[in-house]
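Dear support,

We are seeing what looks like truncated structure output for some complexes. This example has two components. We would appreciate it if you could run it in full and send us the complete token output so we can diff it against ours.
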Amino acid sequence: MEELVWLIPALPLLGFALLVVGGRRLGEPHAGLLATAMMAGSFAASVAVFIGLLGRDAENRFYELTLFEWIPAGDFSVDVGFLADPLSVTMTLFITGVGTLIHLFAVGYMHGDPKFSKFFVYLNLFAFSMLMLVLGDNLLITFLGWEGVGACSYLLISFWFDEEANATAGKKAFVTNRVGDWGFMVAIFLAFFTFGSINYGDMFSGANGMAASTATAITVLLLVGAAGKSAQFPLYLWLPDAMAGPTPVSAFIHAATMVTSGVYLLTRMNPIIAEASSWAPNLIAWVGLFTALFAASIAVAQNDIKKVLAYSTVSQLGFMFVAVGSGVYVAAIFHMITHAFFKALLFLGAGSVIHGMHHEQDMRRYGGLAKVMPITAATMVLGWLAIAGVPPFSGFWSKDEILLGAYQDNPTMWALLLVAAILTAFYMSRAIFLTFFGARRWDAEIDGEAPDHPVQPHESPITMWLPLVALAGLGVVGGVLNLPFTGSTKRLEHWLEPSLFGNEQLITETTATKWVLAIVAIVAGAVGIVVAFVVYVKKRVDASTIEQPILAEGWGYDLAVSDFMGGPGRKGFEGVTWFDRRIIDGAVNGAAGLVRSGGSLLGRLQTGYVRSSAAGIGLGAVALLVYFLSRTTL
Amino acid sequence: MTPVVAEASFAVIPALVLVPLVGAVVVALLPRAMAMLAKPLAVMFSSTAAAITVWILVEFDKADPGMQFVSSQSWIDALGISWSAGIDGISLFLVVLTGVLFPLAMVAVDPGHDHKAYYAWLLVLQGGCLGVFVALDLFMFFVFFEIVLVPMYFLIGKWGHGAREYAATKFFLYTMLGSALMLVGIIALVALHARATGGDITFDLVELAETQAVATNTARWIFVSFAVAFAVKVPIFPLHTWLPDAHTEAPTAGSVILAGVMLKLGTYGFLRLGLYLFPEAAVWAAPVMITLGVIGIIYGAIVATMQKDLKRLVAYSSVAHLGFIVLGTFALNTEGIEGGVAQMINHGISTGALFLLVGWMYERLHTRQIAEMGGLQQSAPIFAGVFTVVMLSSIGLPGLNGFVGEFLTLLGAFNAHRWWAVVAATGVILAALYLLWAYQRAFHGRPRGDHAEMTELGMVESLVIIPFLVAIVFLGVYPKPMLERIEPAVDSLVAHIETHVPDFAEPVANQGGGGGFDDIEVEEHEGEAE
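Here is the complete output from our reference environment:
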């Protein structure tokens, strides 16, 4: 059934086309339901391809389907072609699965929006691009999807464009992503230069024994690209701002799918990374580690519930980069999947809360919502336990594997990552306590301002809570994908094995070490939760001692960058523009002026007409010609 | 006079060039009382030319690397000047673009006054541009190359905006200065060639190129004289400052044609004359040209970012986009040159469409100042949607047309001059910056001021813009039909350079290739239990 692979992206594309033509006529809710149905169909196709691959021997689980030749030029040729292998099918399964649920949620969330159908136009186009990204059988189709998701992300972040901030956030996302895309593009050039092809199969069969320097360069360039899309330091800046988009967008694009493409790309290119000098994967790991810590520390002091989740996403993506850099790709993909479950859940839960609170996003005006929004509260609590690393919820298993891989690679890295894990448990507990428990602060004054209007929170409709329940279920049991007990419970590891070409670092630690590390991880999660409980429920410690302004402002990095762009950067651009007007064009006008004043000395020649100037040019040309011909010899 | 060679069943190229020129005469001679017929007549003549170009496209043999539809006719025998014309893969799509863009531009906007003269000049311009693209005789090339200046001068000067006379004069004198140098070069080449071969004087492009009779050093000098003329036309930094003025002050149709067709006269000249006539000099000059191309990409984008006038911003974006063409051309390999040709077409489509849209915005708002706009997407969502698609095409989003040429030029340049390509690729970041920022200020935010409302696209406007959108998507998704027609001619040009330049070999990628997934050795590792 592998030959159905083309259907996976084709269905969302069809949905996009149908909605462009007739979305407005379909109206609410049918436009949304159509889009959801397309995603569900895409999911069904993914399952079919999955079953098809399962029926093959492990080493034969590569199915390539070429639709047509895309860009042929000279020695370069690239097809619109798909590669269905364990890695890409794993990606499509969770993208379409989670995507369907989020589409359904959005039908409720976007209720009453005048641009209801347009929202689903973009959402389906995004899904199409994302699926192209993971299914492409060469770097350029992946790049097509890569840029496509960036453009859709831009359109969706600035969806409510009449707010200046939303429009700015969309632009910022696109431009920052493009910085990363530069790296990706140059990596493509270098790959083509090296292998004469950018088809994954061709590259991987040529990778063995390639020059380490080339492999290193490609790896680092891909890291630049991945850091842009997956919001790693120093390019993470756009993601917190991207929360300006409607919440289903945040859940789908900026948590579950698009931001994981960097991790996917690096995992896909594992045969190249394997040939690189060891500092290149180390760099990936340290970038991830720094980002994980950095973003987690910022999340601690955010008041906007979506900002907490945004920084949390940045931080969790950092965990995945650590895994990739440590060579434990399975752990990276495993965490990517569980993260998609629980982070999509947390975002949608936040969306449900925001919906119920009449678009209030400040947690200082929440509190005690568990009573009025029981389903949302219950599901979000499950998501919280998953991300905090409490066993047996899904996040525990995947995070534990990353920690294990990091420990084997470098114990210092493990220790630092453990700190990030403690922070994770802390800031998520803080968000949950502030939102669902404690006193009701619904009309609290913040900085002397009361809410615009009194709120009466309410539970969300079924289209919204049904996806929450489904995701909560997945977030709870997601760990079964890859339980570490025996070889046969490591399902994901076995399944992904063919796509990793033996480049997965095997864990050689003793069982005792593994137990100790797991227990330490559990304790770390517990510490984070307990501290948050002490601060925000028992209120033994004043919260302001933890929520330092420097953290709330993201260590001032964002501000520094925007100050630079608005200050010296802009000055530089203005300088170039001044140079263009005054110097370059000034020289032209100056020369013209000289000619004119020279002309007025010879008053009779000065007629002011183009034809006389043209005649002058002609005469000059003839003179030049005579000179030229007299001087040149053969 | 008898035709020397006539491959086509009828003299299709003379017909193609003559139809608009005859049309110009007819329109110009219209009695004043029938002036309202000027537009329909002009569109009819122009569309006839368009139809002929489409016929050529259909009949074109994609496997043939040489000139097709050749028409040759002696003209001024004593001086070895002939009417010699033909179309190959390099000129094919430029001819089609010229054919189709003109009638669309004529329909799209009304000049407001002096309709007769306006449409007559546009027809002259179309005939002239077509003449340049088909010319295979240096004299003929030069004549057409010069002819096009006149109608554009009047179009800007008479139907333009603001400082239109300044802009028109600057445009005319600047390009004229370059052309004068080229004329010197042409005559020098022809004379020296005749002296070297001892034969008759000839202006025949193929003969001049294939014999390569002129000494290396002299050829370099002559190449420089051509290069300056083309560099002004492209324009290449630092000879570009006529462009923002001309583009901005020109009437909408003038800007569309300037960007869509006339800038390509320069890049096309580099390919058809520069590389073909002077292969050694082209190899010699390539580092300088590539450097200037890269500067154009970055510099044009930076200056575009800071523009306050939307039309001027689009004009500067052309400087950046044309830089990619220069870069690809002087990469001197198939990928680069083919990408350059594709970029010529794609820039014509995207920037042509952008100028149309900006022109329509000006008609509605009576301003081009970005600061005076805002929230336009609110009142005109479809207009905004069309603008977004065209903008994304101009930014070079894969899947839309702009990407194909940009990518191939960079790829080709990377194989030839790696670090320049790395720098040039940063242009993609800047392209996103200036266009998205402008879009945000004009279309996003809340509607405000006197320009809060903008009417949607009308019927005619929609019909005009749809072909652009179709081309943008089609050439982005399936550029193969275009590329495979361009390639044979480019291959033969590269082979020509390799033949005539002893030490030169096309800069290509390593030919690793590979056998796909079947060839990969999967290192087995033992599962821990099983």
